[in-house]
Design brief:
The chain is an alpha+beta fold. The protein has three helices and five strands. The radius of gyration is 16 Å and the shape is globular.
């Protein structure tokens, strides 16, 4: 067993190198190979965002941001459009030591913070 998440000398540490791209996201959704964080569950419940909406976003959306320096793992932000025409953002990541997708948060972007295409953030004031 590992101590504090570090492999012991006799353990093999696997590093996954599959990039987080739309093909990977679709594959994870289709195989139910993803984990929704407690934060994402809470936000979805508070805002009435169904798991099926999140899944559709990951299957049919587009990656609009990549944050390779994000911690604890590099992340991507996906934009998709609901059936009602509203934008939806899904932030997700993947540990290099885990084969599954991690859903960090899901939200409807605020008009005040995003350009009209919801792909670009508005410049911050101040």
């Amino acid at each position: 067993m590992s101590t504090a998440g570090l492999p012991l000398d006799n353990e093999v540490s696997v590093v996954y190198t599959v990039p987080v791209n739309m093909e990977f996201l679709r594959s994870c959704v289709q195989s139910q190979n993803y984990r929704v964080t407690a934060h994402a569950r809470q936000v979805m419940a508070e805002r009435g965002i169904a798991a099926t909406m999140m899944e559709k976003a990951l299957e049919f959306g587009e990656i609009i941001e990549r944050e390779p320096e994000d911690r604890p793992y590099p992340s991507v932000l996906v934009l998709a459009w609901s059936e009602s025409g509203d934008p939806l953002h899904v932030k997700c990541s993947r540990s290099p030591h885990s084969p599954n997708l991690r859903i960090v948060t899901v939200y409807e972007p605020e008009d005040a913070k995003w350009e009209s295409d919801y792909k670009r953030r508005k410049p911050s004031r101040g």
